[in-house]
Amino acid sequence: MARIRHYETMFIVKPTLTEEETAAQITAVKERIEKNGGEIVSVDDMGTRNLAYEIEKNKRGYYYLIYFKSPSESIKELERGFKVNENIIRFIFVKYENKAEVAQWTKMSTEAAKKANA
Predict the structure, then answer these.
(1) Using CA atoms, how far apart are residues 25 and 48, in angstroms rounded to an integer?
(2) Which among 20, 35, 41, 87 is least surrounded, fewest beta carbons within 10 Å?
(3) How far is CA 79 from CA 36, 42, 61, in A?
(4) pLDDT digit string (tens) for 43-59?
């Protein structure tokens, strides 16, 4: 049986997309997480921000953060989906394993949920 682990993923969507196209990219990522056995706990829509350095001629990007629980086998498939999506210019997955890390993940995901509902 697959062990469920705690993760966060932050990804940056190209700033040249319309609001609807950006929303569609975010929805597609959420659906892919759920389709691969993940459970989204909370999200943090960070909006458009300046990039630390230019990526693919973009100086800005739309940042989005998702806290989720998922079987560890599904992460490879999620990463593959990000790599083939030309509208996502950067992404990262962070796995939280020990008790202290999971406690921090819980705190951050709760804060993100409060911010989203405010």
Answers:
(1) 14
(2) 20
(3) 12, 19, 19
(4) 999 999 999 999 999 99
pTM, to two decimals: 0.92
DSSP 3: P
SS3 content of the chain, % helix, strand, coil (to 5): 40, 40, 20
How does pLDDT run across 76-110, given as a tens digit for each residue?
999 999 999 999 999 999 999 999 999 999 999 99
Q: Which domain holds residue 61?
A: 4-117
Provide the terminal-to-terminal Cα distance of the chain, rounded to the nearest Å.
38
Contact at 8 Å (CB) between 69 and 4?
A: yes
Q: Which residues contact 78 (CB under 8 A, 6 or more apart)?
A: 9, 32, 33, 36, 38, 70, 93
CA distance 101 to 97: 6
Q: How many distinct structural domains can be found in the chain?
A: 1
Q: What is the CATH number of the domain that holds 63?
A: 3.30.70.60
Instruction: Based on DSSP, count helices (H) and strands (E) in the chain, helices before strands.
Output: 3, 4
